[in-house]
Specification:
Layout (H helix, E strand, L loop, with lengths): L1 H12 L4 H5 L2 E3 L11 E3 L22 E3 L2 E3 L2 E8 L2 E6 L1 H9 L2 H5 L16 H4 L7 H15 L14 E8 L8 H9 L4 H9 L10 H15 L4 E7 L17 H12 L2 E7 L1 H5 L4 H12 L5 E4 L10 H7 L3 E2 L18 E5 L4 E7 L4 E2 H5 L8 H17 L3 E5 L19 H12 L3
């Protein structure tokens, strides 16, 4: 546990001086050791062997607060011990609980129809802080406590979104580009002439081929804030045989090769959209990654699960084994917000064996359909825009990453819609881009 505690302290402090300042923070209830530190955090029972992994390790609602921030473990009590600031608020156990998805291993019986842990069953949602990155707020408290203990180098950074990831999951790249699509459109009354035009005409005429439009918006923001602060990612499927993985597109087709070339030309990074099947059987990820690398000619380092169906925390081990370095799955489908309690990328900590992995998790802030679907948030346009901008402000305050997910098919503006589409998603994405140019 020593390595994990050290990592958590450094993560909370953040910044270039995290390593140096972390030595001034102790996590102990041994008063004989207090003099080694400037700030001491008193451990709650959470990490004790007889508590960890049992019902006793779960936070109880209503939660306490420490200086206005929800506290999962410990108490708000703080006091001086000589010139050492002693805090009974166990922000380390609280941060660990959220960052590791610990709640999900204690509640394996709670899953939705896709095997996912629902956001509306989570502690952050039930306790009313899903819209706040409270792990990052713990970091702000810790820096304040260090300054209070006369460590003036624990400065508070200027609020700014450090990185914007504009991500796009390519579930259905085309609407009518196969013979089966042609037959479908003809039978449902589109008419053979119109269906043939989509099937055999220029790729740009396909209703779902919104990639040039998305890349234009992405690049307008990249040009405004700089390529170091903003990147464009496209996640492609390479396999999967279940109904949820349809449509299965051929990576070696002329249309797909043209799409891959467009992404590369316009500086859109290609990542793996691991299949619904792979969410159930994570050992499939290695083969899917190899297929995508073969057909794109590009090393694949980034992943996001289809349907956000990274089902169990320990399943992330399979991503690490395949050489994936960064995962972008960690958001709830049914509620936008801060699933891991943070808006900064964090190394995955396996809550089962308590091992720190080199795999980095990038918490998803907003998925397009989370905002409007009636089973999810059910927002209208103005409400959705206001909520996304509120989350963006939280990210800026925490100096974190803003990660947006907009599907190519959901922004279609030509009358062709998915089952979950509304007619304002292109307008909403464009409005968000314009607002982000001001940050």
């Amino acid at each position: 546990m020593r390595a994990i505690i050290s990592y958590l302290i450094k993560f909370l402090i953040g910044g270039d001086k995290a390593g140096e300042l972390s030595s001034l923070v102790g996590y102990t209830n041994d008063a004989n050791k207090f003099s080694r530190y400037r700030v001491v955090i008193i451990p709650s029972p959470f990490f004790r062997d007889e508590v960890y992994g049992t019902e006793r390790s779960m936070p109880q609602l209503p939660l306490n607060e420490v200086e206005g921030v929800p506290l999962l473990f410990g108490s708000p009590k703080m006091e001086w011990y000589d010139d050492i600031w002693v805090v009974h608020a166990d922000i380390l156990a609280s941060a660990y609980f959220l960052l590791t998805r610990y709640e999900e291993i204690r509640k394996r019986n709670i899953r939705d129809e896709h095997g996912r842990f629902p956001g509306k069953e989570s502690l952050p949602y039930k306790a009313g802080f899903i819209h706040r990155p409270i792990v990052d707020e713990y970091g702000r408290l810790l820096r304040r406590w260090l300054r209070q203990a006369h460590v003036q180098s624990a400065v508070e950074p200027e609020p700014q979104i450090q990185k914007i990831w504009l991500t796009h999951d390519v579930d259905a790249p085309f609407y009518c580009r196969t013979f089966r699509n042609l037959l479908r459109e003809t039978l449902k009354g589109t008419g053979l002439r119109n269906a043939w035009k989509m099937y055999n005409g220029p790729l740009a005429d396909d209703p779902f081929y919104t990639f040039p439009k998305l890349l234009q918006l992405d690049n307008s923001l990249i040009n405004s804030v700089g390529s170091k602060r903003c990147e464009s990612l496209f996640f492609f499927k390479s396999s999967g045989s279940s109904m949820k993985d349809k449509p299965q597109y051929r990576l070696n087709s002329r249309d797909m090769q043209e799409l891959f070339l467009l992404c590369k030309t316009e500086n859109g990074t290609i990542g793996l959209h691991s299949s619904y099947d792979a969410g159930k059987t994570p050992s499939l990820i290695a083969h899917e990654k190899e297929l995508l690398e073969k057909h794109t000619g590009t090393p694949i380092m980034y992943n996001r699960h289809h349907y956000l169906s990274s089902r169990e925390p320990e399943d992330l081990d399979w991503l690490e084994k395949t050489g994936i370095t960064d995962d972008f799955t960690m958001g709830y489908a049914d509620i936008a917000g801060f699933r891991l309690g943070t808006c900064r990328s964090v190394q995955w900590i396996n809550p089962e064996n308590r091992r720190i992995s080199p795999l980095r998790l990038h918490p998803l802030t907003v998925m397009d359909c989370s905002l409007n679907e009636s089973d999810y948030m059910g927002l209208q346009y103005e409400e959705a825009l206001a909520y996304v901008l509120q989350l963006s402000e939280r990210v800026a305050t925490a100096n974190g990453e803003l990660i947006l997910l907009w599907h190519n098919d959901i922004v279609a503006t030509n009358g062709i819609k998915t089952n979950t589409s509304v007619d304002w998603h292109h307008k909403l994405f464009a409005a968000i881009i314009e607002e982000l140019k001001k940050v």
